[in-house]
Amino acid sequence: MSETGGGIANVKPLAQAKEQRAWYFYDWANSAFATTVSGVLFGPYLIAIAEEAAVGDRVSVLGLSVAPGALPAYVITFSTLVSALILPVLGAVADRTSRKKDLLAGFAWSGAFFAGLLFFMTGDNWQFGAITFILANLCFAASAVVNDSILPIISTESDRDRVSSRGWAYGYAGGGLLLALNFVLVSFHDTFGLTEGMAVRISLLSAAVWWAAFTFIPFRGLQNHQPVDVEQVEGGVLQRSFGQLWITLKELRNYPVALTFLLAYLFFNDGIQTVISQASVYGVEELGFPQGTMLGVYLLVQFVAVGGALLFGRIAATRGAKNTILGGLGIWMLIVTAGLFIPEKSLVPLLLLGAAIGLVLGGTQALARSYFSLLIPRGKEAEFFSFYHAMERGTSWFGTLVFGLVYTFTGSYRPAIFALIIFFVVGGLLLMRVDTAKGIRDAGNDVPAVI
User: Fold this and answer.
1) Which domain holds residue 341?
2) pTM, 2 dp
3) Share of residues in the chain with pLDDT > 90 (%)
């Protein structure tokens, strides 16, 4: 153990390592919702429930006639728009409190509660499922803001890519493990004496229980840290938070590199999120695979993504996060192009596509998180990460909307998937304009040896 100048042991690295290990487990916990619910089961099951209520192959959504096949995209669109309005205020609140881990757990357990209510989506009551999913997804987004804001507190600039990538790897491992259990349950539901619908409902419930249970690890292992460099604003908690938010909004022009990256991120991440949320619908409705097969493909994606996240973290250590992300975006372009040509009910090409998605999925997202953390000032981590998630969600409606509209006009999910290539092209071009070293200096952070 190293010694400081006064002969006192420097225990900060040990304390950070302990918190990092606890922090990894929130990715492990919430990935159950991201995979089993959002990624695989909710969309197709919502369509099946909505089809029971459909009249002339249409259901009414706020007075509009919508095809059941497009309903999941529209539900996600609405959820992301609402969260985009809420998250910046949440970020300002989180930066003013020393109780970040309590906020994290509170949002996680609330989200798990609403996710658990999906068990009761039966018959033709698709509206109940849509509302509870929206509430669960809002809590999921809020917890992600707080969780990401903890990353700069428990890691140094030079260590951040590794820590973020390892967190994503834990997430894909945890989500994949639960998905494996649900794959068995849904695929062999007859063996367990269950209908397919009941097997899906139990799987949805299992994700909620998993999310809630494993959140206890970061809740117990993380420490609450005092906020730093907080703006002095008068009033109560909410009034002070709005005041700090207003100050930060005025100061954003002082961080042009961070803003450029946010613009790039909102495009390429929009493409990623839309592929993730609509892939199961594409596989079931367009390619003709049963739910069990798509669960198996997602299982493949999850476990490949564990290695992909760790691999991208190692590549970033020598090539820099920006260049590594750009390479990943090139692979994403190939993936959505391949979606045009996969033959119906052809399993091998589907598995190859799933492996490619797994390779780049965790890596691009993990490095985007750690890369952005270098471009934001200390003391405003939650606020800037709230913009990060709000801009992501404020435009994620565009990806799902484009997907839904292309499907509505063409009647095929193939051109809908391919249309997402524009998000990766524009995001990559904007990312190429980001001056990493200048952005780190503007934020007042230390410049790592490799950027």
Assistant:
1) 21-443
2) 0.78
3) 34
